[in-house]
Amino acid sequence: MLGETESVKKITKEAYRKALPELELRLSALQRRARERAIPILFIFEGWSAAGKGTMAGRLIHPLDPRGFTLYTINPPTEDERLHPPLWRFWPKTPSRGRIAVFVKSWYRGLFPGGMGELPAGDSTAGVLRVDEINSFEEELCREGAIIIKYWLQISKKEQKKRLLDLQKDDATKWRVEKEDWRQNRRYDRIIKNIDDMLEDTDTEFAPWTIIDAHDRRHATIKLLETAAEAIERRVDREAAAAEPVHPQMKTEPVTLAVSVSPGESPLDAADLTLSLGDEEYRSQVEKCEKKLREIELELYTKRIPVVIVYEGWDAAGKGGNIKRLTERMDPRGYDVVPVAAPTDEEKSHHYLWRFWRSMPKGGHIAIFDRSWYGRVLVERVEGLCTEEEWRRAYREINEMEEQFVRAGAVVIKFFLHISREEQLRRFKERESVEYKKWKITPEDYRNRSKWEEYRVAITEMLLRTSTRHAPWHIIESENKHYARVKTMSIAIQSIGKALRKT
Amino acid sequence: MLGETESVKKITKEAYRKALPELELRLSALQRRARERAIPILFIFEGWSAAGKGTMAGRLIHPLDPRGFTLYTINPPTEDERLHPPLWRFWPKTPSRGRIAVFVKSWYRGLFPGGMGELPAGDSTAGVLRVDEINSFEEELCREGAIIIKYWLQISKKEQKKRLLDLQKDDATKWRVEKEDWRQNRRYDRIIKNIDDMLEDTDTEFAPWTIIDAHDRRHATIKLLETAAEAIERRVDREAAAAEPVHPQMKTEPVTLAVSVSPGESPLDAADLTLSLGDEEYRSQVEKCEKKLREIELELYTKRIPVVIVYEGWDAAGKGGNIKRLTERMDPRGYDVVPVAAPTDEEKSHHYLWRFWRSMPKGGHIAIFDRSWYGRVLVERVEGLCTEEEWRRAYREINEMEEQFVRAGAVVIKFFLHISREEQLRRFKERESVEYKKWKITPEDYRNRSKWEEYRVAITEMLLRTSTRHAPWHIIESENKHYARVKTMSIAIQSIGKALRKT
Questions:
Q1: Tens digits of per-residue pLDDT, B98-110?
Q2: Fewer Cβ atoms within 10 A, N terminus or C terminus of chain B?
Q3: Rounded distance, CA A88 to CA A86, Å?
């Protein structure tokens, strides 16, 4: 893509002065229109050192209402950030509906932890972001309605050298030139090939790159503002023409199915709900598990492995008690229980996965989710809280997110607590009759119960589509609570143990 | 306070086994009752190294529903945290209504950055928290409805030494003993005096300390659970007896007034709204200011000074345009504009200052608030969105927060943009008649306008009560926008310049 830039493009001062005010007005109006339509916009500035990323970002925001955007300068990850998957630090920075986020440097740095365009040494890919992870991330944001506008600021090796020398000459700017910048200049010819690959591999339909010839500031500014305005206009105009908001045009590939689902059969059917454990055996097994879990927790901590445990299940299947038992003897400094309720309004104004990224454990810690992102394909699907298109693509988005965790070294364990419809009713009745359990039961529980069949279909599809090699589902027969508790503990021990042996 | 602990307290295994289950049931029920009443609870575990803080926290949470609490282990501050005021990292961890936060180590470490009980060397107090800051922090949380339960786990010098040796003997635990722990033991007799001072100085009515003799684990556990249950019960019972939630009993001292306010006169009256600037002078002054601001921004950055700029003012006073002008030529990487709207539901479930702490700038950065925490004593007061008791105490709480920023090295600059009632009407009309300004005007603006007098009283009281030496208000005559913009820029330059010269 960079091969195409031929000679240096320039624009006269006069033409610049003439074009600028109109362009700025146009952009400023577009910011308002995008805000009215609640469209989130992401601008990404990447480029060679000294290509003028900061300056260009400044030119872009000049006409914008400063209350409507946030600018982020991305530095190398902190220690805390390095203990999370590479995209973790970017998720909280994605803009809410109607806002603009401007990134000076971005997640593209994650492809090259040794410096922009420098391939990782050897074949160590720990902590290195992958092109397909970036593409998925950007695609997901776009599918939820975002516009992503990406700029690569291109200058020649000679021009870069000249700028670095100029910066060094001036006392006010010489602190900005670092060793790495000179190294980049020396290795320019090798690096440009890797950057070209990066641009090609991430030049997608939904988030294309714009290469800006940055030799001439005036030319670059005009090009920048024009392309920004066009990108926003295209979308806003299309939405204005349509009756309601439309998402950007994309190849809407059908979700590829791992397994075909026939409504009649379900992995739930295979669960033997008569399985149970007597008091004595329960106690002895639990004790063993507890001891083992505590050992494992310490080992996890010293090896800095993050663990994600997901609990889903029917109402009254015993999630709370099960989590309590699992964590009972664990060191409380090592785990967090994350209860997931309906999203708050702040959460609703972001991508639906945004809030879960916030709770992802860092290396050495365990996060236990009491309900989770699977709400999208369960309650939100059944209750019509999202569109069919939205829950359909959620399977892939979720699989990709979990795969990212695993690639970043995490263990992902998913439990579905299964009980029969009769047992559920029995437990509801019990809750109503026992004083200290009454708070647990609400009319909503009965409402959900009346939709048992619809939930069964949604659960079945979820189990089939999101049981992956890296993050399989475990169906926990929970008719007998003792049995269920020992089973989840054993699976947790097994799954984590496997990961520990690998290190 | 520690002098009072005499001989080691013990409890037999039998008595322990008998007392424990009942106590745990009681606590578990209290957790539910507190959740129903939306009471946030904070537990703080402090104590000597090896006194068993982690173990005791584990005993406390054992009977609790893990979905209802979060446990935080407090480590020394990270670099990012050190670039903020000392309480900044604790505010986000304060629990929302109905939740429990358990702190293993806490803000009390902030009093002694060199180690618990070690006085700071020399008279450098940079980054050191003060006792009165802690007391204010805890009082504010309590006044918003929180229960704070603080434990100091006490062991003797001899016992500590024995425990450290035991830990070192075991391969599984020896990594937990650090040099500092031995140093603490050697200096025990000196340190205990400082700790005693700390306990006495922060043993307040609203958040008293409970000293736990931690030599015997069983005794400590029972004492811990008993005092926890009592503290929660006292509050929950009182609330149940009252018609509606009550805040904990406290000396409700009248807010001390810096100035007495008579409704007739206001600092607003002194503002000369005829002040204006012609086009030419405006342009030349703005240019000078811009240049200066850019220089200052760089200097701020290298000296790591944080700057907080607050904009308040009448509707249509020109806050947006003023901010735009101020930031126009600043390096966008150095500042953030924080637009403040009605709080989200997540924000509403915390202390009203919680959301502002999240946006506080770190050293070297500027945060510009378009509306701010002053909403409490302006719109929330006038519209009856909070109680009189709440806005009355807000003056002091706000003053204390701002003082903390200043103590931590920040510059706090507050602008009130003032216009006449006639000018406001003129601007409303203009907005209605100009196509691209229409979005700025809503029926609410007229509603607010009809309450001009009530707002005037609230503004006047705010200006008088919160114009402090460390963070004075600047009234900006904004009838003429040019004049207003140059004045804010000049004041910003002056205020920041003064801070820079001090370093």
A1: 999 999 999 999 9
A2: C
A3: 6
